[in-house]
Amino acid sequence: MSTTMRGWVLTRHGGPEALRFEELPVPTPGPGRLLVRVTAAALNNTDIWTRTGAYGLPGDPEARAGWRGAIDFPRVQGGDAAGVVERVGPGVDPALVGRRVLVDPAFYQDDAPEAHPVGLLGSEADGTFAEYVLVRAERAHDVHTSPLTDEELACLPVAYGTATGMLERAAVGAGETVLVTGASGGVGLALVQLATARGARVVAVTSAAKAQTVRDAGAVAVIDRAGGAEAVARQAPEELDAVADVTAGELVPALLPRLREGGRWVVAGAVAGPVVTLDLRRLYLRNIALLGSSMHTPAHFARLAEDARRGLVRPVVAARFPLPQLPAAQEEFLHHGHAGKIVLVPST
Predict the structure, then answer these.
(1) What CATH number does domain 4-158+296-345 carry, 3.40.50.970, 3.90.550.10, 3.50.50.60, 3.90.180.10?
(2) 171-292: what fold?
(3) What average pLDDT does range 37-45 have in this prediction?
(4) CA–CA separation, 191 and 180 (whole Å)
């Protein structure tokens, strides 16, 4: 194989002009690592927010920073990937070479099954917007038996990993009624599909233009978000078992009273507003749990990989772009006219 590869390098925080498409050295796997030839990669909000430095810092919310703080530039971006094991480092089973794998993009605080993520490919290490990516061997999950295409598999790690973490932390199960906000986005649509696959009854909040896609994903009812928080609250079921929230904002105080005794509200995003006013009596008087959920644990991702092997859900691929067209793909991503995931396909 060649000693060089093509990939997108982020040179600084900024707009699309901060990205460069370059010839890069193919990394060599060290002990416990393996090299994956990327067959498909997908886009996420985290890619955009890392590029623009939108995460802020403790005590300085306007500071330009990555998810976990300062970014070490230059950095190959991208967190989602499916691919084929090309090489293995010392201590890694050579039988893995040639295997199709799903890459867990997270770095964890320790080796425990329930460890929290503390970093991400494309942010704290070079990522998947290139022809090859270097990963720890235990983060490459064998999915050679999966009926999903490589493009569908590439949609899973960040969005479906985040959704799996939310559903696991909120203990969503069969027979429960779950409301999903932002249901046409990457994480939102994943929540609809995964919760439905678990036997839950999903009520979704989205735009009228994307309502049918959300119904096709499994939602039993769709509420038009255009009516605002009060209209959504009026249309929501009286007794929700859980809310899986990726938007936050005014929906939080509006919908919190809809949760049943012992209900759970799990939040993994705040695009509609990170600061809300709550009547905390609605929490403690009804034993409601308010949960924050950032991505997934190793155990959560292992469950997602098993779902992929079984073909339990099929991600919606909204659009495909060749790897050299990342700026055009991100431009379409930012228009929010799609439902599902946008995928990059290397030519190797």
Answers:
(1) 3.90.180.10
(2) Rossmann fold (3.40.50)
(3) 96
(4) 7
